[in-house]
Amino acid sequence: MISQDVSGRLDEWVRAGKAGSEVNRTISLYIEENFAQVAFMTSAELAEQVGVSQASISRFAHSLGFSGFGEWSKEMQRMIRTELSGPDRLWFASNPTLATEDETGDRVVLSEYLNLQSLNDILASSEFEALVQAIVEAERVILVGARASATLIPYLHYFLSKVRSDVYATVPGETLWERLPMERTSGTLIVVLAFPRYPRVTVELVRELEKQGFAIAAVTDDAHSPVAAHAKPVVCVPVTTVSLFDSYATPITLFNLLIRRVAQVTPEASRERLGQIEHLDQATRVYD
Q1: What share of the chain is helix, strand, coil (3-state, %, to 5)?
Q2: CA distances from 111 to 39, 122, 220, 225, 231 (A)
Q3: Which residues are CB-neighbours of 93 under 8 A, at least 6 positions away?
Q4: pTM (2 decimals)?
Q5: Which of 118, 120, 88 is nearest to 242 (CA)?
Q6: What end-to-end distance do the CA atoms of the chain give, in Å?
Q7: Which PANTHER family match (predicted)?
Q8: What's the rounded Cα separation, in Å, for the pair 119 and 257?
Q9: Hey, what's the torsion of the CAs at 43, 67, 63, 88, to 10 degrees?
Q10: CA-to-CA separations, 87 to 37, 83, 248, in angstroms, rounded
Q11: Which end of the chain is more exposed for a tag (fewer CB within 10 A), N or C?
Q12: Which of 185, 192, 187, 194 is nearest to 165 (CA)?
């Protein structure tokens, strides 16, 4: 079930299409019944499903006020990505590849490739550098996230702990999560990970922590994410949604680069801690 905001925008498009030519009415009817899938189709796929030409699809996008199908497709994906249910995503399992003149191969691989390319701009952003400085200056860092976003926490926690001390992590159901609003705010940085579909429990916790006066940073996918208004800095990194389940290769790569940057800013402290960890690992024969 899509939200009222998305439904309202979709209704506008459908009404505009039905008021046009017979071809536009045909396209509108298909979109009305299959919007979740249409948002991630290529123009060739949509044309084939509807039974019209690719040129007709392009003209339809122009009639809605977009420069072309590409711009319209991106807007549909932005609207729908937080709305997709598990059953909706089964379409991707049956339609894994792209087949157009410009793009071939698996749509997940292409999407991830494009997302990874965006990392250079993210690394050069003031928000990224502000997150680095916040982590460096905090007395302790607490990572929070729920559901799919929580699966990213162990990686960031494990490796960030190698270059600085006092890094903690918590997820719903743990004592630290439940009592986090009671913790001391001074010197504490909360780093929230929140990707679609945004768990209500994360949003509610962040709102409460903001009320308590905690310093909060967020790593999310969109500046309009429900946690973004409660955090500063906010680093936005794309996730790949064109699959049965979201792919987080780009956020994981960002975390790797974030940790590297923290180590670069604190070379002596990082070197000392890495040395201590290596000595401990050897003493306890962690590795064969």
Answers
A1: 60, 10, 30
A2: 14, 17, 17, 20, 27
A3: 244
A4: 0.78
A5: 88
A6: 52
A7: GLUCOKINASE, RPIR-FAMILY TRANSCRIPTIONAL REGULATOR
A8: 9
A9: 40
A10: 11, 11, 20
A11: C
A12: 187
Q: Report the distance separating Cα 137 and Cα 132, nearest Å.
A: 9
Position 153: which residue type? Answer: I
What is the share, in percent, of the chain residues with pLDDT greater than 90?
66
Q: What's residue 99's pLDDT?
A: 46
Q: Give yes or no for a contact between 241 and 87, defined as CB atoms under 8 angstroms apart.
A: no
Return the closest-CA partner of residue 259 out of 145, 128, 70, 89.
128
Q: Give the per-residue pLDDT at 32.
A: 87
Do 146 and 136 contact (CB within 8 A), yes or no?
Answer: no
How far is residue 31's CA from residue 86's CA, in Å, rounded to a whole number? 20
Domains along the sequence of the chain with CATH: 4-107 (1.10.10.10), 118-283 (3.40.50.10490)
Question: Helix or strand or coil: residue 219?
Answer: strand
Bridge-based pairing state of the strands 97-99 and 104-106:
antiparallel
